[in-house]
Amino acid sequence: MGVEIERKFLVRNSDWRPLISSHSEIRQAYLDTTAEASIRVRIRNNSTATLTIKSRPSDLRRLEFEYPIPVLEAEALVSLRQGSVVEKTRHLIPSGKLTWEVDVFLGENDGLVIAEIELPDEAHPIERPDWIGAEVTGQAQYYNSSLARRPYSLWQAPNRLERHG
User: Fold this and answer.
1) Do the Cβ atoms of 112 and 160 come closer than 8 Å?
2) pLDDT > 90 fraction of the chain, expressed in percent and rounded
3) Are 82 and 31 in contact (CB under 8 A)?
4) What residues have CB less than 8 Å from 134, skipping those under 6 apart?
């Protein structure tokens, strides 16, 4: 059984950019989102695709099941989505045995930059680089399924952040 243990943070500046080891372009769409689970299709670099089911609520630990699917089938599923397509560039930044994933959102979520780190267990300590800002783990509006329904461009000040990343 797949389990995801992840923490999310806002990004306070662009000091992370020289540390990037790789990046990928991601488009994802949500086929269904309920109080119990979300079902999404993700296309990475227009060359690979996955169908993912994640349990909710969005807290530190949740079930995650991910299955590879053909890109053409993923494109067809995108047309069945609820809400907007979430577009982002994901940058990987190694940090010891862990890796920070910095998502720079595009399209309707342009201006939002979030860093995530997957952990082997909930108590695993992390070193927070200076470019990491406030923790938003568990704050539903920062999760991709919420951004598909209510994009960052629709947020009202003071809920919108200055663009830093």
Assistant:
1) no
2) 79
3) yes
4) 9, 10
